[in-house]
Amino acid sequence: MFSTLNEVREYCANNKIKMIDFKMIDINGRWRHVTIPSERLDEDTMKYGIGFDGSNYGYAPVEKSDMVFIPDITSSHIDPFVDVPTLSMIGNVFIIRPDENIPFDQYPRNVALKAEQYLRETKIADSMVIGPEFEFHVLDHVCYECKPNRVAFELDTAQAEWNSGNNDGMNPGYKVPLKGGYHITSPHDITYGLRSRMCLLLKEWGVEVKYHHHEVGGPGQLEIEVELGQMTEMADKTMIIKYIVKNAAISENKTATFMPKPIFGEAGNGMHVHMLLMKEGKPIFYDEKGYSGLSQEAHWFIGGLLKHARSLCGLTNPSTNSYKRLVPGYEAPVTIGYATSNRSAVVRIPAYAKSPESKRFELRNPDATCNPYFAYSAILMAGIDGIINKIDPQKNGWGPFDYNLYNLSVEEQKKLTALPSSLGEALDALEADNEYLTRGGVFPKKLLDTWITRKRAELEMINKIPHPVEFAHYFDL
Predict the structure, then answer these.
(1) Rounded distance, CA 66 to CA 46, Å?
(2) Which position among 135, 266, 367, 385 bears the catalytic label?
(3) In this structure, are 267 and 225 located in the same domain?
(4) Residue 360 annotated in active site
(5) Are residues 95 and 146 in the same domain?
(6) Is residue 117 part of a domain?
(7) Which of 133, 266, 367, 385 is catalytic?
(8) Are 221 and 80 contained in the same domain?
(9) Is residue 362 among the annotated active site residues?
(10) Among 125, 134, 168, 195, which residue's CB has the most CB atoms within a 10 Å radius?
(11) Which domain holds residue 97?
């Protein structure tokens, strides 16, 4: 939006902008923010930044150093959800040193920038272009509590089939059947207008939308798919998309969640990531004679993803709820493999992407509980490892599986490698297999150790809490 500080200050004066809001990313992938009056944005802010305590954001402390956030004025956009006119910016975190500021290597955006730099250093490609698909639920009501004498949650949406017999007031009768929501239209699709308004807000914030639609899940599961973009830029846009979706829903007295599996028995929310590599402005994943039109480099990249698929889950699927989605029967991947047009494989090659510029594949296991900067960077690092070491997915027995993997017999399934079935398994895999992430200094070892320690503590805490279904199974024994 701007290229110089003077442009920002002139815009603020002409448009009566009262506040500048700085949005920062904590280790889990949530935005946090601090706000200053617009007149306080000056040269010192851009040079010395805004000081903060990184340990409160989950990062390992840096001894004898001041940590500061320095805004990126090119990321500026008006925040549409506040009453006081406010300009919002993201940026990077630096450590202040006497001679020259250095990037804080644990900060998610710096990790992503370092991964892109490492890709260029390998000479494999200049950039990775990605396109995530954003699935989420919009609901009318959510409540939950976790007390010593009561553990419960309840959610509701007017369109759910469980409300077909609701006789409290007027019931129009249009309900979406179980797993029957895919591309369903009005009057069943009660969030159509809200989705369109979300997409218009995204466009105003610089996020180009391909399309939006109702997803499979009957109780308000939706999807917005955006145009492909550079990896770090798309990580920024992932944060913007989640912010706009949640706040747009709240502004219309609804609520949105990207939880992978908020509703038992219905489809879960994934964040499938489409990807391709570009070198000197040209795609390197296309080969007319290759399997499904993919080049040798593309197959090696897939090989790297599949070799490290289990450890990747520690970053791409970092919640206990993630593994309630990664189960058979809901178009979510379970088996480590690749194929064309096969939604049961971890890596799917879309048959409709036929031109050299669009030839790509998607990784189907990630979900939006991830920190997008870490997840996208890890995906890139796994693919680079595959290309450097020429990891052939077919020779390693990972496919192509051009058939429904859910229909295999138990004996046949035992021959295949599966994704982790729990967060604990994923963290074990990440702890055992992370050398590919640390190459080029992309993921600092201290960051990975901190991440694993925090996630193990989270897992241990959740595992200690009795679950309602345990009462149903064991109370009378």
Answers:
(1) 15
(2) 135
(3) yes
(4) no
(5) no
(6) no
(7) 133
(8) no
(9) yes
(10) 125
(11) 5-103
Residues 253 and 373 both lie in one domain:
yes
112 within some domain: no
Of 189, 215, 297, 367, catalytic: 215
Domain CATH for 66: 3.10.20.70
Looking at the DSSP assignment, which residues form a beta bridge with residue 135? 223
Q: List the catalytic residue out of 116, 223, 266, 297.
A: 223
Q: Is 357 a catalytic residue?
A: no
pLDDT tens for each residue of the chain, 477 residues long: 788 999 999 999 999 999 999 999 999 999 999 999 999 999 989 888 888 877 788 887 776 566 889 999 999 999 999 999 999 999 999 987 777 788 999 999 999 999 999 999 999 999 999 999 999 999 999 999 999 999 999 999 999 999 999 888 778 889 999 999 999 999 999 999 999 999 999 999 999 999 999 999 999 999 999 999 999 999 999 999 999 999 999 999 999 999 999 999 999 999 999 999 999 999 999 998 899 899 999 999 999 999 999 999 999 999 999 999 998 887 788 889 998 877 778 999 987 777 878 889 999 999 999 999 999 999 999 999 999 999 999 999 898 887 766 666 667 676 788 899 999 999 999 999 999 999 999 999 999 999 999 999 999 999 999 999 999 999 899
End residue of a domain, out of 71, 103, 135: 103
Q: Which tokens go with 279? A: 């070198």
Contacts 24+ apart (CB under 8 A), 325-332: 325/260, 325/261, 325/268, 325/269, 325/270, 325/367, 326/365, 326/419, 326/420, 326/421, 328/406, 329/406, 330/266, 330/267, 330/268, 331/216, 331/267, 332/268, 332/270, 332/364, 332/365
449 in the same domain as 306: yes
Is 252 catalytic? The answer is no
Q: Is residue 472 part of a domain?
A: no
The answer to whether 223 is a known catalytic residue is: yes
Catalytic, out of 137, 272, 274, 325: 272
Catalytic residue among 274, 325, 348, 364: 364
Q: How many domains does the chain have?
A: 2
208: its two tokens: 């180009």
- C-alpha 284/C-alpha 24 separation (Å) is 34
Q: d(Cα 357, Cα 293) in Å, to the nearest integer?
A: 12
In this prediction the pTM is: 0.95
**Residue 145 among the catalytic residues:** no
Asked if 78 and 150 sit in the same domain, the reply is: no
Residue 135 annotated to the active site: yes
Point out the catalytic residue in the list 188, 213, 343, 454: 343
